[in-house]
Each structure stands twice: as C-alpha cells, then as structure tokens.
Amino acid sequence: MTELTQRLVAFIQDNLVLDGDDIKVDETTPLLVSGLLDSLRTARLLNFLRKDVGVPVPAAKLDPENFKDVATIVAMVRELESV
C-alpha cells in the first residue's frame, strides 16, 4: 500500500466513518455504495486532498467513477499530479 493510499484510508476511517458503523475501510471499500460518501463527506474529502495532499480536484473530475474506492481516488490524484 502506498503512502497516499494509507493516508486516504486513515482519513476516511477516522473522519468519514460514523461512530457505531462497523465499517473497516481499505483501498477497495466501495465508498459510494456503502454510503460513506455523501455530499458533505465528499466536500471534507476534497478539502483533505487539497490541503493535506496538495492536489486540488477540478470540477471536471467530480464524477462518481473517480470516487468508487480509495484505489480510484489514488489513481485520479496521480493523474492530476502529472498534469
């Protein structure tokens, strides 16, 4: 697991999983299907990517396909870093 993957998994587990939810996040946890990402949580995730990771996500990338799981988010971030 890459450092970015570990950071994203930890952020989601610590900040987006509600207390009492018995969800263990890994790089393949379906974030949308499981209900982990709603509009507020997505905004928090985008803020984390912008401030802590240093990669702002443009509106053109705000497609559910890019937020299916941590692995797809990491792939999107790597793509944005290379631009």
TrEMBL record:
SUPFAM superfamilies: ACP-like (SSF47336). It comes from the Bacteria. Residues 2-81 form the Carrier domain. PROSITE patterns: CARRIER. This is Carrier domain-containing protein. It holds the Pfam family PP-binding. It comes from [Actinomadura] parvosata subsp. kistnae.
